[in-house]
Amino acid sequence: MSTTEITELGRRWAAAEEHGDTATLDELAVDDFTLVGPLGSVLDKTQWLDRYRSGNFVTDELRWHDVTIRRYGDAAVAVGIQDQRAAYQGRRSDGRFRVTQVLVRDDDRWRLAGLHLSPIAPPPGS
């Protein structure tokens, strides 16, 4: 099987994040989904979605690109770059992040089990 489904899931995820579409994000993620944020915070699925529901987190733009995908049976890992313009509680949280998506086959479709964001910074001393 090709990685087309995983690529499409990534496209749908990025669009849903950009538009605060919690219904689509809820559908794309498994119940025990976990997000590890760029500063090490950990959110479960409800907390992740509640950022949008509450209006605390607003994404103005999100680009998901330069993605590589590795499949392991009913699991996959996608690593790419997320460029975002966003605000949390009115404070800008723009940035460029290396994102690792953990995906699993669930009921014959791919779903997000986890996301881990790391800031992309220049090498030390540069």
Summary keywords:
globular; 7 strands; 52% strand; single chain; 7-stranded mixed sheet; alpha+beta; 126 residues; 25% helix; Nuclear Transport Factor 2, Chain: A; 3 helices
Describe the structure.
- The chain has 126 residues and is α+β, with helices and mostly antiparallel strands.
- It has a single domain, classed as Nuclear Transport Factor 2, Chain: A (Roll).
- The protein has helices spanning 4-19, 22-28, 45-53, and strands at 29-36, 42-44, 57-72, 75-88, 91-92, 95-106, 109-119.
- Strands 1, 2, 3, 4, 5, 6 and 7 form a 7-stranded mixed beta sheet that branches.
- A hairpin with a 2-residue loop joins strand 6 and strand 7 (109-119).
- Helix 1 (4-19) packs antiparallel against helix 2 (22-28).
- The protein starts with a helix and ends in a 7-residue tail after the last strand.
- The mean pLDDT is 95.
How is the topology of this model organized?
Blueprint lengths: L3 H16 L2 H7 E8 L5 E3 H9 L3 E16 L2 E14 L2 E2 L2 E12 L2 E11 L7
Distance between the amino and carboxyl termini: 42 Å
Order of helices and strands: HHEEHEEEEE
User: Oligomerization state of this entry?
Assistant: single chain
Shape type: globular
- What is the highest CATH level, the class? Alpha Beta
- CATH fold type: Nuclear Transport Factor 2, Chain: A
User: What is the arithmetic mean of pLDDT?
Assistant: 95
Give a short summary of the structure.
With 126 residues, the chain is α+β, with helices and mostly antiparallel strands. It is built from three helices and seven strands; from the N terminus they run ααββαβββββ. Strands 1, 2, 3, 4, 5, 6 and 7 form a seven-stranded mixed sheet that branches.
